[in-house]
Write a structure and sequence with these properties.
about 0% helix, about 140 residues, mainly beta, globular, 5-stranded antiparallel β-sheet
């Protein structure tokens, strides 16, 4: 139930839409109902080429809390490795090469990255994430 101010008026609801897709996007992660390693959402490759050495990148994120004090913590993983024995078509994720911590207060957080290994870019919610109702993180190629 939404209560309108006395005398009428409008109520603005923050829908927390991610930024419009850009040709500079490397990876986008949309998160709902996140609590550590348990979350729903989706990770999508962007339109930019995979990361390469010498290029600048930026992580940008925003989230709203499920309760007071939520935090969205996302790792950027390095290049994947060949699949495990018995599952060669399922490459294993690489090691963590960067992390962004986004306080769920509705403000946008940014992290400039100067040195990512070539082929990095997979985004993964970490166990340090708490009380996230909804949020997003985008890795983009810098200028």
């Amino acid at each position: 139930m939404t209560t309108l101010p006395e005398g009428g008026g409008t109520v603005t609801v923050d829908r927390l839409e991610p930024p419009v897709s850009s040709p500079a996007d490397v990876t986008r992660l949309l998160v709902d109902h996140a609590e550590g390693i348990f979350w729903s959402g989706s990770a999508e490759p962007g339109t930019a080429f995979p990361t390469r050495v010498g290029q600048r990148y930026q992580l940008t994120g925003r989230c709203l809390p499920a309760t007071t004090g939520g935090t969205l913590v996302v790792d950027v993983l390095g290049p994947g490795k060949g699949g495990a024995a018995g599952a060669p078509s399922q490459p294993m994720s690489g090691a963590r090469v960067a992390t962004i911590t986004v306080p769920c207060d509705g403000t946008e957080s940014r992290l400039d990255l100067r040195n990512l290994p070539s082929g990095s870019g997979e985004l993964m919610v970490t166990e340090a994430t708490t009380q996230v109702a909804t949020g997003w993180v985008v890795l983009t190629r810098g200028s």
